[in-house]
Amino acid sequence: MAKKSAKKTVKKTAKAAPKSKSKLKSKSNSKAKSATAAKSKPAAKSKTQTASKASPANPRARGVSAKPRASSAPRDFPRDFLWGTATAATQVDGGDTASDWSHFCRQRGRILDGSTSDTACDHWNRYEADFGIMKSMGLNAHRFGVDWSRFQPEAGGEFDPEALDHLRARLSSLKRKNIRPLLTLHHFAVPQWWLAKGGFTREANLGEFYAFARFIVEGVGDLVEDYITFNEPNIYALMSYLLGAWPPARKGMSGYVDHIKVQRSMVLAHFTLYDMIREIHGRKNFKTPRISISKHMRIMDPRNPESRLDVDRANVADYRMNRLVPDAIHSGRLLEPLGNGEQIHDPEAWDFYGLNYYTRDIVSFALLKPQTLFINTEVRPGCETNDLGWEIYPEGLERLLLDVHARYGLPIQITENGTADAADAFRGKYMIDHLAAVKRAMDAGVQVDAYYHWSFLDNFEWAEGYTARFGLVGVDYETQQRSLRPAGELYGQIARTGILPAV
Ligand code: IFM
Q: What is the domain extent for residue 260?
């Protein structure tokens, strides 16, 4: 069973969250007891229209009657708060045909609109202009990732030095603009050749992933301090191995077993990467890194709070969705069902908590769903939803921040939060309501250091193709023209002032 972390009290008043990790922390590169092997091209000049400079209070931000507060108003967020956006390589870069996703898109019926990730936003070639938009918005952070297949398209092949040069050029461009990068090493996609040999279901495969990670960190560690090893291990395992919606589209009982194996491998790999990144940064005199995962969290509320079965399934869903992987990383143990609770690493193999938040699920007992542990999830009837039918529930973010703070006592970065809203009709209000929830948690003593809005650009939303639009910047996929949406202007205003407009 999960080892319970010492609960920390959340203050009801002014902020005084622990700036550093708990005293339990004993971290050294050499002491780590991981059981696993401890082991450009210049961007084309964009012809696209760059978004205009964000205006101050933005009256066009739909869904919000923008009432800027007086410039003398106290800041809601500290001056050193990181205001960023997030993207993922497969979803925006284009040009990578060696990934499992590129292959998957070619299978009939896999992607809702029949599209592929082959071009996406052509961000690979347009990053300079895109980063210019971020700069004009006044942002000071950006989370993005690398796709392994781009660097090593063939099994056993050399890592591509040009791809590394390109990554260095991107990071340097961000640095020149004073935009702090947060680099994700795995965000759902893997090389097709690696998936074909079992991907994360086989621990024997992990050495190849470590070699890729080493190539990246050795190659760009002088330009990066913040890392995400894995984006949403729970969602990757669920969608790819339990629900059959993402490559390799597995389900059934063997899929269930593999979805556990995948999460176990990712926990093992996280421990190894944590030690590896710290070792490389130490040896090469790079700055001390900050390392975490991006954890997709959802509120799991029982449909009928009076029903013991619903409450019990909601608790199980909450544990599997929200706590299993973080508890394992925090305790250094392979918790059930990932293992037998064996200690395989020093506790607290992370430096902050990366939290991705979007929505809430309503959970009930379902006799006919043994494969999902008799758990049924649905959207709360009659609630406000986004374009994908996800409930909009800002209070959930506050609940999760308080819970994560109490459980782990780490500084928190919100590594994703955003909504699908093609008309940009409610994104501004969504953003303000969620940031207000963040502020309430901060006022209660939770240390939140960063907020990365998902997403910077409209992008390839996996099996939904291009049907869902999450961007602060809209993309015309025919022309690759960018246009800063009103909510993007609003976000820039918040980032520049640290003040939330009144709604
Ligand atoms: O687009 C995804 C992202 O890749 C991971 N987190 C959730 C986003 C919205 O679905």
A: 82-497
